Amino acid sequence: MSVDVDDVTPYLTPNGDFYRVDTALQIPDVPAESWQLRVHGMVDQELTLSFAELLERRLIERRITLTCVSNQVGGELVGNATWIGAPLRELLAEVGVDPAADAVLSTSADDMTIGTPLEALTDDRGAMLAVAMNGEPLPLEHGFPVRMMVPGLYGFVSATKWVVDLEVTRFADISAYWTERDWSEKAPIKTASRVDVPRSFQTLPADEVRIGGVAWSQTRGVDKVEVRIDNGDWNKVELAAVDNVNTWRQWSWKWQDATPGTHEVTVRATDATGYTQTSDRAEPRPDGSTGWHSVQFTVE
Ligand SMILES: Nc1nc2c(c(=O)[nH]1)N[C@H]1C(S)=C(S)[C@@H](COP(=O)(O)O)O[C@H]1N2
Ligand SMILES: [Mo]
Asked: Are strands 210-216 and 249-254 parallel, antiparallel or unpaired?
């Protein structure tokens, strides 16, 4: 699952390096012993779960690349980890969801509200109430003791940390923290790619111009990554083996006949639906940035 290029972002992001987005200035202190999750709203029977009861459920382990909608082209608000948790699909089946519902409004211990399309929690993508990250209990900053993880959706519509309440509802009847601030209600992650090496303005010897990075297209999967030098032809790069469609793929390419001078490398990815990233630049608001990432470097 890895390519052999120095300084490419590691396949699994260590917990301590995983990006963070918190609206709260102080991380909420939620002891596992007193944690409870209430599941209610448009359901046949409400349910309240303790942490011990959650752990008694069937747990699944999945590698999932989480991405923030605020990530700029080439940005760092993306990370890949192994998560363990209880499938939300099973929990929602148990409480019995009203067919008229189309959303779940989740609330955190710090009163963050997030609306998620119900379908993403009940289809087979593996949405979960996560309790572990890379083999450790969820770190405090990443939502201890329990957070939501939903492959394929930007964090602001899915990844509620310190989650304590799930209300099955309808989008028409709710508003949530970010959607009140002009961000999109439904936000599938866009296909994206990034150059990690060389770093901007790095100088490389002509016989060792190794280019590398990551590309992601959660739920669809990355099929192809191409790079070009300056305004030259596109070159297909080497991709690391597929883990699953919900994780990023590392890629690498060697520029064989590198010429001395200052150059720019540009990357673009194509996902398994055949869609190639557009060069049109869009800002993150309201539903995620678009555009190709470029890095300038010098060959000696
Ligand atoms: N309670 C709470 N949950 C939250 C947030 C938050 O600020 N508070 N930020 C969301 C956003 S915008 C993202 S991208 C992810 C980030 O998760 P991380 O901080 O573990 O990387 O969590 C989401 N869940
Ligand atoms: Mo985010």
From this structure: antiparallel
